[in-house]
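Trying the structure run again after the queue cleared.
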Amino acid sequence: MKITKEQVAHVAKLARLRLDDAAVELYTGQLGDILEYMDTLNSLDIKEVAATSHAISIINAFREDEVKSSMPVKRALSNAPQSEDGSFIVPKVIG
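Done. Tokens:
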């Protein structure tokens, strides 16, 4: 697939990018190379290739959920500069 300078300039305008002629020329060549490579990939026969979501096999690294006792409120608030009724007191940041 070939891309033209006019198409690159049009997409740049839609993206509200100001490109000079040198940039349009550069991006036309680069995008053309990318599209040419995509055409090469599209020509490959992949009917027998299984779909994958990752390049390497991965295993879930998360631990199992276990019920554990939580930290007592008094201990959690022990280093707080200010607390009241089991809650942290923090400066007001929104008017």
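The first helix runs from residue 5 to 14. Worth checking whether this holds up in the mutant runs.
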